[in-house]
Amino acid sequence: MQHAHMTAWFLALVLFFVAIFLIKGGKAKGAKIVQMIIRVMFLLILGTGFMMLSKANSSGILGSDAGLQYILKVLLGVGVIGLIEMILARVKKKKSTGVMWIALVIVFGLTLYLGFSLTLY
Predict the structure, then answer these.
(1) Which residues cross the membrane (predicted)?
(2) I need a surface site. Which of 56, 65, 89, 113 has the fewest CB within 10 A?
(3) How far apart are the first and last CA of the chain?
């Protein structure tokens, strides 16, 4: 399940940058299509993530200290999805996105750190 999860978020990240370039290039229709595909990737990310969380719960990990890390990773992951959506919306409206990019890098980095550290359990 981890491979499907990682593949989905990697594809979403690549498609996010493709959508940014399409929006900035004036190709609104192409950007809209890519955004819809990104949203399907988000559903796959959430689905595989919750399946991994369910597996961790059934093995009793959520009752330990690692359980809080799993919950934090879920919250940070949802935050990454929200920040990606907000950045795309603001780029489309030609508004400033500097602070959101900084937040995205920080939250995504924390999510990656937690995700890779939790695979050790």
Answers:
(1) 6-24, 36-56, 68-88, 100-120
(2) 65
(3) 15
